[in-house]
Amino acid sequence: MVKPANTSGANGTTVLIGKKGAGHTLDVYTDLRCPPCARFEQGAGPTLRKDIKNGTYQASFHFGTFLDKNLKGSGSKNALSALGAALNVSTDAFLDYKAALLSEEHHPEESTDSFASDAFLLEVAGDVPALKDSAAFRGAVGKGTYDRWAQEMSSAFDRSGVSQTPALKLDGTELTGSGGSVPLTATEFTEAVNDQLND
User: Fold this and answer.
1) Is 103 helix (H, G, I), strand (E, B) or coil?
2) Using an 8 Å Cβ cutoff, are 3 and 149 in contact?
3) Domain containing 44 — which CATH number?
4) H/E run at residue 167
5) Whole-prediction pTM value?
6) How many structural domains comprise the chain?
7) What's the rounded Cα separation, in Å, for the pair 28 and 44?
8) Is residue 1 part of a domain?
9) Rounded CA separation 27/123 (Å)
10) What is the pLDDT of residues 3-45, one digit of tens each?
11) Which domain holds residue 192?
12) Where in the chain does DSSP place strands (E)?
């Protein structure tokens, strides 16, 4: 099995990004075909990246592929494999590509398995400067270099006990907004993080 660079742990299933001195960890659970995950990325993603950069917390990313099973198809797994190819380039390329996949422009309807197409995934990568001209990235997507790693990531997600996405845990405690659901806007997300850190 080929593990992307910038991973650690058994089978490379730990994807931890941020300053090592950060005193907190935010666990982020995503299925790349999930529309609410796209809404979270579009609404709160830039704030999350700013928090990582500022050292508010490190972010640990977990990815499931249960929508492939529920809706039939392979888009969650295929997109995750491509995201592994981006992670192998750099953590910034990973974050940029994740944002592009989940963007309003590119994210497909839940029932449309667009991510099953390598050509579509490469088209989305055209929005990411570090990837658009990367022969190594294109080759890894075309060959499915990180398919097995994507399966290991999915298996680790299944063992986590998280049953729906998006889900957030800050220092092991579920992070929710005022209504008890996942905060999908930048304002709600910042308030939820601050409330929990100041508890």
Assistant:
1) coil
2) yes
3) 3.40.30.10
4) strand 167-170
5) 0.97
6) 1
7) 12
8) no
9) 29
10) 999 999 989 999 999 999 999 999 999 999 999 999 999 999 9
11) 10-197
12) 16-17, 25-31, 58-64, 167-170, 173-174
Whose structure tokens read 């890894």? Answer: 140
Q: Report which DSSP code applies to 107.
A: P
Helix and strand numbers (H, E) in the chain are: 9, 5
Residue at 4 is within a domain: no
* Residue position matching structure tokens 């666990």: 27
- Tell me whether residue 172 is exposed, middle or buried, using C-beta atoms within 10 angstroms of its C-beta: 0 to 12, 13 to 18, 19 or more: exposed
Alpha-carbon span 83 to 125, nearest angstrom:
10
Task: Please compute Rg for the chain using Cα positions.
Answer: 16
Q: Give the Cα separation of 38 and 59 in Å (integer).
A: 17
What digits encode the pLDDT tens for the residues 162-199? 999 999 999 999 999 888 899 999 999 999 999 999 87
DSSP 8-state code for residue 109: P
